[in-house]
Specification:
transmembrane; about 80% helix; transmembrane helix; 2 domains; membrane; 11 helices; about 190 residues
Length: about 190
């Protein structure tokens, strides 16, 4: 056989080996992701922490993904100090544009009901400076305006959207509806949505 044939054989073998490695790695990631989501769904947060810190997880997932799981667990625990630390730590990681958008929205959503205007505002600025994500920006402007600036002009639209919203969106809408009624001085209607 000529050198050219050997080079082609070696190249094909290398590509096949890389493909096999990728498929094995992908299967491992899928298994770990499924296990992590199961632990979150069942509230097994200590086990989740152990999984996230495991060598297998550290080899399979980038730092951002592991920290994001820890952040969710910290929020579920209600650990404000640890959650603040994790938001800061994630902010120092290299993120894709999609990860930055998810991170910024998570920070905005987390700090909004806590009425921590400075922190919430930082994440809103982050959202505002991103390209695209117009629906997120519109929501952030509306929510920030209601909670921190006392805006009331979105009430009718929120009430209408709430009629067809899914449960997660309904919870967000009802928080904003209650705040809007508070801004209007209508305590009775605000209590209906708390």
């Amino acid at each position: 056989m000529t050198n050219t044939v050997w080079i082609w054989i070696i190249a094909i073998a290398a590509i096949a080996a890389e493909l096999i490695f990728y498929l094995v790695q992908k299967k491992k990631q899928d298994r770990l992701s499924e296990k992590a989501m199961d632990l979150v769904m069942h509230g097994n947060l200590d086990e989740l922490d152990q999984l996230v810190d495991s060598p297998e997880m550290q080899k399979s997932f980038p730092l951002y993904n592991r920290l994001y799981l820890k952040l969710n667990a910290s929020i579920m625990r209600g650990n404000l100090k640890k959650t603040d630390e994790l938001f800061e730590e994630i902010g120092r990681t290299n993120m894709t544009d999609q990860q930055k958008a998810a991170y910024a929205m998570m920070g905005f959503q987390y700090y909004l009901p806590l009425e921590r205007k400075e922190e919430c505002g930082q994440y809103k600025v982050m959202l505002d400076t991103m390209k695209g994500n117009e629906a997120m920006k519109k929501y952030a402007d509306q929510a920030f305006g209601i909670v921190y600036d006392g805006q009331t002009d979105s009430l009718e639209a929120l009430l209408k959207k709430n009629q067809t919203a899914n449960p997660a969106q309904k919870a967000i809408n009802e928080f904003l509806i209650a705040k809007t009624y508070e801004n209007l001085g209508d305590r009775d209607n605000a209590l209906k949505y708390h």
